[in-house]
C-alpha cells in the first residue's frame, strides 16, 4: 500500500476500518441468516442419503452482494437438500470474514476472492500460510469500478466513452489528479488479494501512472462503499453488484460506473468456493455433494429464463437486502453506467455476470465454474507485480495445482454428465485485456517483467559526471 499518508488520509483509513469492525461485530446480533427452508426446498427429494455422507451438516458463508445468488438459489430451490446436505447459511460482513471463517474453523465452506486461495499458500503480504483449496468458481464478471462526482466534474467519463483509447482516459485521470490533493486519490477495494485490487492497479498503470505512488487503496466491506463515498472518505471503489448500480444517478446519486471488470479482463474469475484442504481429504463424499449442489445452482442462475427470479430471490433481507431495481441489472444484464448529465448509458449483455454458460468462449466445453489453473498463475504475477510477494514462486505450477483443484472438478462434473476442457492452462488472448497484452502461462516471469510499472522495477538514473 502507498506510504505517502497525510493526517486526514490516516484518520479516514482508521475510520473506514472502525466502520468495518463495527459492522462485523454487530452482524451476529442482527440475525440476518436465512432460517427455515422454504416449501419448495422441503419438497425436494434427496438423491443422496445424508447418512451416507461423512458430514451432512454444514455451515456455509456468503457475503451480501449479487454473487451470493448461487448460495441463495441452492437454499431456496433445495439443491443442498437434493445432494443430502443440511446447510446453515452464514451471512458474512466482509470478504475477510468469509475467508477467515474457513481458516479458523467457524465455516466449512465459503466464497472467497479469487486471489485468496493462492495468496494464503504463498503467504502474500506476510499472511500466515494456510492450505485453502477451491475446485470451482462461483461466478465470473459481475463487478465494476464506481467513481464519484468529483471525478466526473474533473472530466473523467465512463470507459466506453473513450472508444478504447487508454491514452485519452489517462490524460483525463492525470489532469484530475494533478489538480487535486493526494487526499483525493483514495480508492477502495473489498480485500487485498481481490482481483479488484489487481484490476485497479492494472488500469492505472496501463495509462502510465504508478499506482504505488499516486493512489492509496482502502479495504472496505461492500455495504460500506456507498456511504463512505458519500462522506468523502474515498473517491472511487471497485466492488460486486449491486453496490455500483446503487451509486448512480436516479438511485443514491453519489457516483457513476467507470468500467465493468469484464472490460478490464474478459472472462476473469471473481469468487471461488473455498474449503480447507483437510475438508476434501476428511469428507470426500460430502465435498462432492457440495460441489454438485453449487454447480446445479450456478446452472440455474445462468439460465436466462430464471434471471428475473434470481434477482428477486437475492433481494430478500437475508441475502443482499437490496431492492430488486438494484440487484436486477447485474443479474439480468441491463447494466446502467449512469452519469451526471441525464444521458442513458445502458449496456445489455448476458455476460454482465457469468454463472455457468460462457457463450463467447471458443474452447470446447468451457464453462464458468471450471477453474483454469493458468488464471491462478496470472493472479500470482499480479501479487508479485505489486510487491505482495517478493518474487514469482518457483513452484507456482505446483501451488496452482494444489490450490485450484481442476482435477477434482473434472471428476465431479463427469458424474453429473458435464464435459470439461481437457487442459488446465490456456493463453489469455490480447483481446481479453484492456491494454491488449496477452498472457502466456508458459512464461509468467517474462510476462511480469514486460510491465515497466511494477514494484521493484529497475530504475534509470541520469549520472552527471561534470557536476
UniProtKB/TrEMBL annotation:
GO terms for cellular component: plasma membrane. Its main location: membrane. Belongs to the CmpA/NrtA family. Transmembrane segments: none annotated. InterPro entries: NrtA/CpmA_ABC-bd_dom, TAT_signal. It is found in: Cell inner membrane. This is Twin-arginine translocation pathway signal protein.
Amino acid at each position: 500500500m502507498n506510504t505517502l499518508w497525510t493526517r486526514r488520509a490516516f484518520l479516514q483509513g482508521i475510520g473506514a476500518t472502525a466502520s468495518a469492525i463495527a459492522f462485523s461485530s454487530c452482524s451476529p446480533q442482527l440475525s440476518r441468516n436465512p432460517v427455515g427452508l422454504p416449501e419448495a426446498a422441503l419438497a425436494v427429494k434427496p438423491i443422496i442419503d445424508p447418512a451416507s455422507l461423512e458430514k451432512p451438516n454444514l455451515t456455509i458463508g456468503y457475503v451480501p452482494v449479487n454473487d451470493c445468488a448461487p448460495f441463495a438459489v441452492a437454499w431456496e430451490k433445495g439443491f443442498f437438500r437434493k445432494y443430502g446436505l443440511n446447510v446453515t447459511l452464514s451471512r458474512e460482513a466482509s470478504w475477510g470474514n468469509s475467508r477467515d471463517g474457513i481458516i479458523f474453523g467457524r465455516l466449512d465452506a465459503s466464497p472467497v476472492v479469487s486471489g485468496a486461495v493462492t495468496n494464503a499458500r504463498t503467504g502474500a503480504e506476510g499472511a500466515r500460510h494456510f492450505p485453502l483449496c477451491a475446485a470451482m468458481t462461483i461466478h465470473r464478471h459481475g463487478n465494476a469500478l464506481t467513481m464519484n462526482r468529483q471525478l466526473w466534474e474533473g472530466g473523467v467519463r465512463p470507459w466506453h466513452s473513450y472508444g478504447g483509447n487508454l491514452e485519452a482516459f489517462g490524460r483525463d485521470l492525470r489532469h484530475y489528479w494533478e489538480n487535486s490533493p493526494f487526499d483525493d486519490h483514495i480508492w477502495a477495494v473489498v480485500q487485498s488479494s481481490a482481483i479488484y485490487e489487481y484490476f485497479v492497479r492494472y488500469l492505472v498503470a496501463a495509462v502510465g501512472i504508478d499506482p504505488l505512488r499516486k493512489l492509496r487503496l482502502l479495504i472496505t466491506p461492500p455495504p460500506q462503499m456507498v456511504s463512505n463515498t458519500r462522506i468523502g472518505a474515498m473517491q472511487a471503489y471497485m466492488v460486486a453488484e449491486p453496490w455500483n448500480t446503487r451509486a448512480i444517478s436516479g438511485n443514491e446519486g453519489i457516483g457513476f460506473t467507470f468500467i465493468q471488470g469484464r472490460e478490464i479482463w474478459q472472462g476473469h474469475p471473481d469468487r471461488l468456493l473455498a474449503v480447507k484442504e483437510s475438508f476434501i481429504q476428511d469428507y470426500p463424499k460430502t465435498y462432492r455433494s457440495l460441489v454438485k449442489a453449487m454447480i446445479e445452482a450456478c446452472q440455474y442462475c445462468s439460465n436466462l429464463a430464471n434471471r428475473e427470479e434470481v434477482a428477486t430471490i437475492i433481494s430478500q433481507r437475508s441475502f443482499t437486502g437490496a431492492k430488486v431495481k438494484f440487484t436486477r441489472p447485474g443479474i439480468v444484464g441491463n447494466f446502467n453506467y449512469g452519469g451526471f448529465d441525464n444521458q442513458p448509458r445502458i449496456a445489455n449483455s448476458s455476460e454482465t455476470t457469468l454463472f455457468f454458460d460462457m457463450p463467447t468462449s471458443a474452447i470446447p466445453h468451457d464453462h464458468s465454474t471450471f477453474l483454469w489453473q493458468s488464471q491462478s498463475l496470472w493472479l500470482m504475477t499480479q501479487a508479485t507485480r505489486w510487491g505482495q510477494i517478493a518474487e514469482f514462486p518457483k513452484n507456482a505450477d505446483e501451488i496452482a495445482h494444489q490450490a485450484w483443484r481442476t482435477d477434482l472438478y473434472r471428476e465431479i462434473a463427469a458424474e453429473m454428465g458435464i464435459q470439461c476442457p481437457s487442459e488446465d492452462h490456456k493463453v489469455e488472448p490480447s483481446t481479453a485485456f484492456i491494454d491488449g497484452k496477452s498472457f502466456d502461462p508458459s512464461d509468467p516471469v517474462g510476462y511480469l517483467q514486460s510491465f515497466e510499472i511494477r514494484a521493484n522495477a529497475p530504475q534509470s538514473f541520469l549520472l552527471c559526471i561534470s557536476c
